[in-house]
Write the structure tokens for this entry.
Amino acid sequence: MGIIDAHLERAAAGNRAALARVYAVARASTPDLTEGESYGMPALLYRGKGFVAALEAKSHLGLYPFSGKVLPALGDRLTGFEWSQGALKFTAQHEIPDDLLHLIFEARRGEIDLQLDRKKR
């Protein structure tokens, strides 16, 4: 069992499917993701960098793209959700739509590619 599956097993039954869906959409949108930790959170990694974590909090679920730029860049698309630079709050009853998840993951993947490809030069 991987770190993500172990994390999902500990989530409340009513939240488990919503959290698992975030990870499923991430895996479908971005090949070659691996499981690991980033900032102490169970996360999917892309090219060794924190890509996304989806965690349960007391009163909400949170999506963490490990970037302070991704969510602000999509601010006009985040209507109806509470968010900050580094976190997007959602619930099992008010999930993040697939198209928005794909935009978040595309933006984060682009950031990581740009950062790592610059280092190669």
